[in-house]
Amino acid sequence: MTSWLGRIGFALLILVLAAFIALATWEPFWAKRDGVALSDETYTAEIIRDEFGVPHIYGERDRDVAYGVAIAHAEDDFSTLQDVIAMARGRYGAIAGQDGAAIDYVYHLLDARGTAESEYPKLPADTQALFEAYATGLNDYAAQHPGELKLGNLFPVEGKDVAAGFALRQPFFFGLNGVIEPLVTGGDLRREFGPDIPGFPREGSSDTALQPAEDAAEDAEKESLAYSPFGRDGAHNGSNAFAVTPERSGGPTTLISNSHQPLRGGVAWYEFSVESEEGWHFTGANFPGSPFPFLGHNRTLGWTNTVNMPDMVDVYELELDESGTRYRFADEWRDLETRTVTLPVRFGPVVLPIRREIHRSVHGPVIKNDKGAFAFRYGGIGNLGQLDAYYRLNKATNLEEWEAVLSRMDIPSTNFIYADAEGNIAYVYNAAIPDRPEGANWRGVLDGSDPALLTDGPVEYEELPRYVNPASGWLYNANNTPFTAAGEGSDLAPEDFAPELGVELKQTNRSRMAWKLLSEAGQLDRAALERVKYDTGYMRAGYIADLWDGLEALDLSERPDLAPARDLLIEWDFTADNIGPADSLALLIIREFMSCRYQNKGCPTVLEELEKAVTHLDTHFGRLDVPMSELLRLRQGDVDLPLDGGSDTLRASTLWHVHDDGRLALRHGDSFIQWVEWMPGERVTSRSIQPFGAATTRPRSPHYTDQMQLFVEKRLKPVHFWREDVLANAQTRKTVTNRR
Length: 740
Hints:
alpha+beta; ten-stranded mixed sheet; 20 helices; about 20% strand
């Protein structure tokens, strides 16, 4: 008997071991592809790195440069590039577990690969050539560095894979995860576009007095973030942009790019310069997975972006038949497209295959929940024209050419702030908003059976808010309504634009401060603009006013222990400058109220946030008036530096990691800053800075932390745009090629 039991136990052990091996190894074999369309071209690029490790990439053709961009970026951050490629292939769950699988679900739900398959071949040949060269660069680096690979058979990739990544990520810049999450969970859609301009309230706005959060608000936020390719830091927590004419600056046309992004990860800025003999000469920054910069400048013009939040998504309730496989559209029943996909989900050393059904109707993706079946359609759905549009913007030479590209409406969203060597400045509220007929409640849930509610394409470019050379001589955006952008007498009026556009009317504290400071300034020279850009002040208006009114009204008769903190906050000077004794308390208490207003989610109570702030400071510092410079830090490797600024100040320290010592390590806020100047009759010059350095995931690199001290001191480094400057400051120089 003992012998038989031993044999059975041994057999079970073998089965368990076999199952473990299968679960640990199936995913790379399952993901292996045949027939990947690899380029047979030869590419050669020169990569010169300056004193800060920023790569300057040269090539005979644009596609040679794109090959070099992939190599240079992989040298600095191949880890993040692999994450982005895994997302673009629906395999991120095999790296990041359940959070990654949620993104893979969205990849299939939006049919990102299908969009790439259908639309990529329609792109101009030179744009496709750019993406094929970029994919080749990634493949070559992967082949030469097998020890860095996270997943088997992730490479080789082709241009369509890179394109699929664009199709996946772009809709989340205008908040698509805020629609997907409640549809998946069966929660309520928050689709308000709240007011903050006196006299222009909107029914159902969330911008009212502070209200208690729903019990599930925190869980809902985590769930929502899980469906975003940008992770916890999101893509729309703030940015600033400024443009000033020579008349107002007293000298140069000035463009200030100050995008607030995560400091690490798939939407962290990567700085580089490109130049080819075909006329592509640009310096700026991109996100991992792109062969070209998304913002920056060339010889004659430049632009920067801030996230805008128009109503870009329409939601439809479908009427299904008894089988649940057909839906009514007009007078007919149509088959609901359904397919089953496999999501790889890593749990420790094994990867489980999870099967999910994906549905689609004529409207777009469909999600079923306990309340029914809901389809959604969004601006830019099925369009990959942005891959060509950004490339053409890089090579535009004047305002007319630049606007001609934007007017194609191929870039689904984001504000554009522009300046050029001719002294022009412009602001375009760029958004491929669905062209909606009048009469329907487009912010509600629409009747999916009514063909009249099925939009087809965006509105005309001329319908969007737009400024060119306003009388004030300046323009700005800080993720606010486009109706405050140029000062009194130059701002556009909301009533001049159709309500079906769904243009946001919200303000941010950054916007209020920028509008005030720019309006009050005389000459906007470099020193004046530096004071604006690095301002740490708050206005007692909007949610800040509501919060402080709430503090003053608090009844602390049952919580006298919180009175000292409340009194300290009431006496605060409303500047997050590392000077006032209440700066740390204010930093801790403001962030959640900024977030809930900006993202249209339930707000916490003033009492609970005050209690959390007090508990944190007491626990970790033993005092309430701890200097903010001791609380808020910029940390990377062994470098640990003090910071200023707060959530929603122009000097932005928006989100942070709470470390074991109670310090807050910045993870989102001021990131890539670029300051561009065109002096009349002179060549363009620019300066820039990153929070860490060029090699953010390479601890052994000298450029892992070498910009941090400059960043905290509010100093910028030179951008070596012109080749003679690059050569004069070159630290390394090499040629890369795929010639074997």
